[in-house]
Design brief:
267 residues; Collagenase (Catalytic Domain); eight-stranded mixed beta sheet; 6 helices; metal-binding; MetalloPept_cat_dom_sf; Peptidase_M12B; zinc
């Protein structure tokens, strides 16, 4: 995945710190990867271990940062998402922008079935709650899961009873509704972290198309400081500020696994 953190995310979720911005990004992608790897796409009753990993991270620290395609304010989520056209995401299976914006209550938006496409494989993830506060991390994880699943080929769970165990009230009945229920969930119920049979069928069908999976690679689980294994020197990433000047990142330089990480400040 390519993750773009705009200046709003940097200032509000990352508290104006590149280190804290990276921590937030890595934590969320680690959780999303862990949950995706539990999914069974071929119905053999075993996890298929298909997850997500960081390929490139771009952080814009200011609206005036060079190349910041998301610098202008808008309350239109579709307009915001289409600004990805100004970002080079070539080679990424999925590209997502993390923001903290007033988008009229929208927490996420993406295109359906565009994984591995040269463009439109984009997702918008909004970390701003309707009250102007930062959303709970558990809720944001589900939003990322939801939008990435759209890119993978899943539609909303809204037409078939078998995929709406809690009905339209989205309550606790029968374990709650699944990840692709149209309304955002807080992760309170068991099914909130699972894909419905409808989603599994749609995504599995998309994965059978070689064009949809050409960007996917075999890998071991992503290194994480709190889970799975201790990082080694092989996990050191590239980090650049402004004119690609190297900067030592301390402990995170040994714990984040990504090919490239760039932070752009205003000149």
């Amino acid at each position: 995945m390519t993750i773009v953190a705009d200046h709003r995310f940097f200032q509000n979720v990352g508290f104006g710190s590149v280190h804290k911005t990276l921590e937030a990004i890595v934590w969320h992608i680690e959780e999303v990867d862990h949950l995706y790897r539990q999914a069974d796409w071929n119905n053999d009753k075993a996890p298929d271990r298909i997850g997500v990993s960081l390929d490139k991270v771009i952080i814009f620290t200011d609206a005036a940062s060079p190349g910041n395609a998301f610098k202008d304010e808008t309350t239109d989520d579709e307009v915001f998402l289409k600004r990805f056209a100004g970002v080079n995401t070539t080679g990424s299976c999925v590209a997502a922008v993390f923001t903290f914006s007033d988008l009229g209550g929208t927490f996420g938006i993406s295109y359906v079935g565009t994984v591995c496409a040269p463009k439109y494989n984009w997702a918008l993830i909004n970390f701003r709650n309707v009250d102007g506060e930062i959303r709970q991390r558990a809720a944001s994880v589900i939003t990322i899961m939801h939008e990435v699943a759209h890119v993978f080929g899943a539609n909303h769970d809204e037409n078939e009873t078998r995929c709406l165990p809690a009905g339209q009230n989205n309550g606790a009945d029968n374990g709650g509704n699944y990840i692709m229920y149209p309304t955002s969930a807080f992760g309170l119920y068991e099914n909130n972290h699972r894909f419905s049979p409808c989603s599994v069928e749609s995504i599995a069908k998309n994965f059978q198309d070689a064009k949809r999976t050409r960007c996917m690679i075999d890998r071991s689980p992503t290194a994480a400081p709190s889970r799975r294994r201790r990082a080694t020197k092989r996990d050191v990433f590239r980090y650049s500020v402004r004119q690609n000047k190297p900067l030592k990142m301390g402990v995170w330089s040994q714990m984040v696994k990504a090919n490239e990480i760039f932070a752009y400040s205003k000149t």
